[in-house]
Fold:
Amino acid sequence: MMMFFALFWLGFVGVFTFVFMGGMFASGAPFPMIIFVSAFLSIFWFVGIFLLRTALKEHKKNKETELYGVECYARTINVYESGTYVNDNPEYKADFILYVTSTGEVQKVSEVVGYNYNAFKPGTTIKGKYYNGDINFDKTTVGITLPYEAENKIKEFMVHYNISDPTDVVVINGVEYVRKY
Structure:
């Protein structure tokens, strides 16, 4: 989406610059005026180039994760607002306990999950790819049953760091109760 907007922005600024500067040259505008207008229009060019650069970096990061990422399983332990709003809708981040199958490594990772709180409720399990702190997951893999080894490693990590399993918390009359085993 950001890539589309950046290209649209640059296209619009390009057409506007071509028409406006062409008109100035055709009308014989004084040289200082042409320099001033060029400097002013360069601000809009820099904004467009910055947007395009940011979009390309995000695209590259996602492609690297898809190409070089290793299979992982994760469980959502917390979902919260990131502080960013678009059209008065809050953007959400989620904390995951992540299990990387190839290395057996377990870690806590935070990731922006979008604008729908219910898509990744605490306790949701996912399968995806992990690379350099980035998780890519497909909506079709949300809510899967974790493999036995991943489930055990994630539970061990949660016990070791005293993280309560959101699926083990029951709220009755506003009071949270943790299920004990």
About this structure: Residues 21 and 34 are 8 Å apart (CA to CA). The mean pLDDT is 84.
